[in-house]
């Protein structure tokens, strides 16, 4: 069974529960808060995306479904931008992507039922397409106010800034940033950027979507939070290409499993775009590096009109770090499963790392394999673990997929998931299937995958 890479976007999302602005949102009793992305657009830009998030003050256990009602008030920015509901991420909302919003003048009124917090904390309330109006001019500012209620509790509000920016064209000059190294050793990448437009770009930011633990560079003009952002105030002249004064150094952990791959992207941002990103990080603060800067210029950019690239696709470049060395072997494991007709039993299943090397799903894309469970006809899941969700398999029927929690697993390390199963009164036995499924390139060699499936007789 092949798992779509679209699921990859949900795993970082579950880890990014800290990405809500402090001070911008007012929390209701119980700690619920809400925030819409800060928005900077250029005249003529098409369908910029803004994400609306809600966050619980404490992790919910067990995770349950909720009802959210909210309004998006564009009154203070109606002459600058228009918003249209775009959809929900898969797996977070039961149902389709029909808009839950109705419009009255400059106010969108929305209601969502069946929403479950990712990781027990984060609600993805949908994304919105943002389009500038015909009258939007660079330098103009406004704001959007969101008011929300969770399960009918007291309302919470947040206000997000809206800016109209000067249009620029910032482009990554590399086609790929692929590198490799043995465990514990250094690898280098040398990103380059080009000003492909007609306006001078006043400052730029290199944003690496890679875990801090894989970055050896500790430059003082680089900031570390959910991503790594290196800030340069050098003006980029039209038509010119720029490189770093020194390469960015990456280093996999000394015990990383051979064949591990961290596959992500690097992006060049304008200073205005980076300010929008930073505004969505709790506290608005990051940790700066302590080493020598990558360039000799000070942090910060000169004041002037905000700038944004209305066609940001050219800003991205693929970033891949591969660990060289012997690959590990993984094995599916499962407990016994005696369940009588009409009965109710617990069932444990998971995977074990047979080594060599340590699996680090928080660092490497292909270390976070799913464990899949399919059940015989007549057996259903009554209670599922928090990190498991139900989907339809290629061979029809429901399959439960469970992902690891990000904890490192060395040789012999196991990951277990405990279900509560029920059998129908007419159940007369069948076979359950537990398997290890990769949603990116498998870390194992083909010859090592013979133990990736185990069949369990249920009777």
Walk me through the structure.
- This protein is 3% helix and 43% strand.
- A seven-stranded mixed sheet has the order 13-24-21-16-18-17-22. Strands 2-10-9-4-7-6 form a six-stranded mixed sheet. It has a five-stranded antiparallel sheet with strand order 29-30-27-32-33, with no helix packed on it.
- It starts with 9 loop residues before the first helix and ends with a strand.
- It is built from two helices and 33 strands.
- The model is unreliable at 1-29, 90-96 and 296-303 (pLDDT under 50).
- It has helices at 10-15, 271-279; strands at residues 33-36, 39-41, 48-55, 66-73, 81-87, 101-104, 107-115, 122-132, 141-150, 156-164, 166-167, 170-172, 176-181, 187-189, 192-195, 201-208, 222-224, 228-236, 241-243, 248-250, 261-270, 287-288, 307-308, 316-323, 330-334, 344-353, 370-374, 379-383, 388-392, 398-402, 414-423, 430-437, 453-458.
- A hairpin with a 5-residue loop joins strand 9 and strand 10 (156-164).
- The protein folds into three domains: 9-164, Immunoglobulin-like, CATH 2.60.40; 167-323, Immunoglobulins (Immunoglobulin-like, Sandwich), CATH 2.60.40; 330-458, Sandwich (Immunoglobulin-like).
- By secondary structure, the protein is mainly beta.
């Amino acid at each position: 069974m092949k798992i779509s890479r679209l699921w990859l976007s949900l795993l970082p999302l579950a880890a990014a529960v800290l990405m809500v602005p402090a001070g911008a949102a007012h929390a209701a009793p119980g700690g619920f808060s809400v925030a819409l992305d800060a928005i900077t657009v250029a005249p003529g830009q098409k369908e910029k995306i803004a994400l609306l998030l809600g966050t619980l003050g404490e992790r919910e256990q067990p995770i349950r479904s909720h009802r959210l009602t909210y309004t998006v008030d564009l009154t203070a920015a109606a002459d600058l931008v228009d918003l249209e509901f775009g959809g929900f991420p898969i797996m977070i909302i039961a149902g389709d992507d029909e808009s839950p919003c109705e419009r009255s003048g400059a106010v969108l009124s929305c209601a969502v039922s069946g929403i479950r917090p990712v990781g027990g904390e984060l609600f993805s309330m949908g994304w919105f397409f943002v389009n500038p109006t015909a009258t939007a001019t660079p330098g103009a500012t406004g704001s959007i106010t969101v008011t929300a209620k969770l399960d009918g509790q007291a309302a919470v509000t947040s206000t997000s800034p809206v800016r109209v920016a000067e249009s620029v064209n910032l482009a990554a000059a590399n086609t790929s940033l692929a590198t490799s190294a043995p465990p514990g050793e250094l690898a280098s990448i040398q990103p380059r950027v080009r000003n492909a437009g007609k306006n001078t770009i006043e400052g730029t930011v290199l944003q690496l979507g890679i875990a801090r633990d894989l970055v050896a560079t500790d430059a003082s003009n680089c900031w570390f939070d959910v991503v790594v952002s290196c800030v340069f105030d050098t003006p980029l002249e039209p038509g010119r290409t720029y490189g770093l004064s020194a390469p960015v150094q990456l280093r996999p952990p000394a015990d990383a499993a051979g064949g591990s791959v961290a596959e992500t992207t690097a992006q060049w941002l304008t200073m205005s775009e980076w300010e929008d990103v930073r505004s969505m990080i709790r506290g608005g603060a990051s940790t700066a590096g302590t080493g020598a800067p990558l360039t000799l210029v000070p942090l910060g950019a000169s004041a002037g009109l905000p700038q944004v690239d209305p066609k940001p696709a050219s800003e991205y470049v693929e970033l891949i770090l591969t660990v060289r060395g012997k690959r590990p072997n993984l094995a599916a494991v499962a407990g016994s499963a005696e369940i009588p007709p009409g009965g109710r039993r617990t069932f444990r299943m998971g995977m074990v790392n047979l080594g060599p090397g340590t699996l680090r799903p928080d660092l490497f894309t292909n270390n976070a394999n799913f464990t899949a469970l399919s059940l015989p006809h007549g057996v259903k899941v009554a209670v599922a673990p928090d990190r498991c969700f139900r989907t339809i398999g290629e061979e029809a029927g429901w399959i439960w997929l469970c992902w690891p929690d990000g904890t490192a697993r060395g040789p012999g390390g196991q990951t277990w998931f405990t279900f509560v199963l029920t059998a129908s009164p007419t159940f007369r036995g069948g076979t359950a299937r537990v398997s290890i499924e990769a949603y990116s390139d498998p870390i194992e060699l083909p010859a090592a995958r013979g133990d990736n499936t185990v069949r369990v007789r249920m009777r």
